[in-house]
Amino acid sequence: MTTRSCxxxxxxxxxxxxxxxSTGRAAARAALIALSGLLWxxxxxxxPPSSLRGADAxxxxxxxxxGLGSIEGHIAxxxxxxxxxxxxxxxxxxxxxxxxxxxxxxxxxxxxxxxxARAIRGGIGANGKTLNYLMPRYQIDDATMAxxxxxxxxxxxxxxxxxxxxxxxxATIITPDADPVKRRxxxxxxxxxxxxxxxxxxxxxxxxxxSSHTTMFRVERRWQLxxxxxxxxxxxxxxxxRKHLAAEPVFAVISGLGGSHWGPVQRFCEEQSLxxxxxxxxxxxGHDSDFYSVYFSRGVLLEAQLIARELADAAEPANRxxxxxxxxxxxxQAARDLQxxxxxxxxxxxNRVLPAHATSKDLGAALRDVDAADALVLWLRPGDLSALxxxxxxxxxxxxxxxxxxxxQAPLPASWRAAARMAYPVDLPGRRVVRVDYALSWFRIxxxxxxxxxxxxxxxxxxxxxxxxxxxxxxxxxxxxxIERVEMALDHRALTGYYPRLTLAPGQxxxxxxxxIVRFSxxxxxxxxxxxxxxxx
Length: 537
What we know:
alpha/beta; disordered N terminus; five-stranded parallel β-sheet; Rossmann fold; 537 residues; seven-stranded mixed β-sheet
């Protein structure tokens, strides 16, 4: 067992993600032990002779929330869901309705309540042999042990909603404030990917055979895409999503597109235990303590941390930090995060909020009293950056958002380029070209118009990751297991699109952790140069 920690979610969770509290104190106690390593009364579940204690020794850290096990380096950690613990030796899993998982140890003596208690307390397996030293030993009384064993027996492995014998149902979610051009580009990629996937399934003449101690068959299923387009105010979105999910149960949400609001979608997916994998969102509202929502990057919120670090490391601190952003855009959230990061610096933060329909004159007025002693942070879109041509840079310390401005294509006027630095949350153009070119070639061959390159490349990457992950899951269609297998798949992924590296682990929901600070190399054109190494704030 490793020492990676996993925070207990706000509500005690039962298998499948539903709240356990309503099932009574005993079940909640068992979940608390399994998920957090803590007893109900707050005592530590101590595991001598291991040095792990409390949360570090929680079952979920290694056997995972699904209970279907994991792989740590060269060590396969077996499933602890009841069907795998208590299956009689020699029984065929398929005949018992138990899906194949590659960490299962099928040919072992079945546990009983007594032998499982001995394994948990003393590290002695069902066959009487000592378990791996990485398995902690827990000091648990009889009543609590009975509750924990009951919890493990209740970890079911039947397919999640959205899975039939012939179809896997997926959704993608689009908010009404999403960019319409990006929407067309994303859907063009998703629709074609699903067509290609289903054509490959149609060409499959027979199920894929798996055999070890038992014979397992993997049934190839068609992919069905449901596009959930939201309307109206954000306060109404969760109700709309509940109706969509009731009418069209899905296994997971893939990709998706948001504008300045994504919080209601995030909350819905967490509450419904619905995986939401790599949506295109510039300012994700999620946290690493969440489980079901996974992103490629923090977007502008990561940029705020990059700029905050630059301001902290400056040899000559700025007198003020003036932030300019439009009301209703993601710059509002980025400016808030930057201000929070500098809250204890003693540096004055001045926020200039432009009305949603402000003109270039309003932009000029927002910059009027900025002087050379100030730092200027512009959370602005390409149209506003172009409008800066009418204004001279008031300071040599200027930062702009790469996510909002268009990365190296940002139309920053020549007069501003010498002063401006850009927060750049992806890999440099020359380094990512090989990883992105595969997707671009796929677009060209299928005549998909290139409307929003990063969104389309990220969407293609998300679909590919889900496909690759499902190939390793065989028929274990459990939502929690899907997310856990996505984490494992990223460790071996060579084509990571716009990002130099992608990694996830328990307690991590953002796969790309850093970015660059860059400057433009020329008065015109897209050439940029990094002002240092990759930064992980």
